């Protein structure tokens, strides 16, 4: 790239949201460049061969499942990503809970089938589950139209759809408000009586955060997503999504610059005018979209251009604010794993090899978050585990597997520091998972362990928070990432946020990029 080259828009960060924004802008005829600090695109939506001892085992260092993209499928459809190699398959069933006693509970697409699973343990729980799903379905009808649009706009069509849902379900409104406004844990324990059902629900919803906090009932949306949209995987790995976006951008005339750091987002006279590279060269633009973490983005703006209060507000916005963060352990295996103990206790002969398996009791879910908040490594196993190569055999050599182990809550800042305990904790996770995943320890070729500070360093994301800003009702819509920073414009004209730190939040769906592109187009049209 030539120094001092001019563009309509510079995109800071080549994750899937940055690429999404770039594609929409290029499609609108804008001259766009994406600048990515790493040697490859994708950010958290990436995959690669990352274990040196196993160069043919594909690893997903962050996102693996496609749920949010199935809830909000507009981006791949509108950008024609299938033409560029992106394809997904549905997992049926997607999530299965495994209890330590050998029982299991499947979350099927059909709520009636999930209720039938619960009926094996408690008729009461099955009845309660179907009643709960009626509330969740009504909430989904109200919420989804507004999740898909830019909250800074009038959105009359979406508001009309949401209002119709409210009117249809007005008799349920008090129950819905009580559900989403309460701790998820309280709602689970007051509705369900059997330990397997209680543990399954806690293990599922705990993936969104500490379920004992107020207003975490919004996490029940996960159940609605599962039953209404199901779970998918990218064939060939998550990198295929990012690569398809890059191919579409190139087709539209956009550019991508890799292995390039940005020293400064240049603001002159209250307006973003481009970005400055470490060598001093300036890439000028009429608008800048920062698809990285909002804290990192605003700290890159020319010193003095932003009010100190805003910088403080975003610096203190909760990112793993509860003290817990997922740990990631990937294991390359020379043979295939099985789940014989739990399969043997099922009445239907269901194979669990292709499913995402949830491990942990009620007590474990609570202990993991509480221990992490104290800076202590949890002792009880709570994690999600799966073998991606079971769904897509191309991700490992024939007859072999990759294991994806995801302890949901580990300390962001353990007292001993991660450098001192990383290997030990990685072994603890493998030891715990091996009680459910047969062959995990015996077949190991190599492993990769990544904690919150590792993710933070690799992807420049504050405290390793995979959703940038914690998910909550007070950090949604125009309040995400913080008051005064979630709307159509920022205090610096021509500067826009476009990552998971804005509406509608984390997940692989490209909507933050899509929303940012709309804001840029309106800004440029009015300039």
From TrEMBL:
* One Pfam family hit: Amino_oxidase
In the record, what terms sit under GO molecular function?
oxidoreductase activity
PROSITE patterns to which the protein is assigned, alphabetical: PROKAR_LIPOPROTEIN (PS51257)
Task: Cite the Amine oxidase domain residue spans from the record.
Answer: 18-406
Under the heading InterPro entries, the entry gives: Amino_oxidase, FAD/NAD-bd_sf
Cited Gene3D superfamilies: FAD/NAD(P)-binding domain
The function of this protein is: Probable oxidoreductase that may play a role as regulator of mitochondrial function.
| PANTHER family reported in the protein's UniProt record | PHYTOENE DEHYDROGENASE (PTHR10668), PYRIDINE NUCLEOTIDE-DISULFIDE OXIDOREDUCTASE DOMAIN-CONTAINING PROTEIN 2 (PTHR10668:SF103)
Q: How does it assemble?
A: Interacts with COX5B; this interaction may contribute to localize PYROXD2 to the inner face of the inner mitochondrial membrane.
- What name is this protein filed under? Pyridine nucleotide-disulfide oxidoreductase domain-containing protein 2
Name its species.
Answer: Zoogloea dura
Q: What is the lineage of its organism?
A: Bacteria, Pseudomonadati, Pseudomonadota, Betaproteobacteria, Rhodocyclales
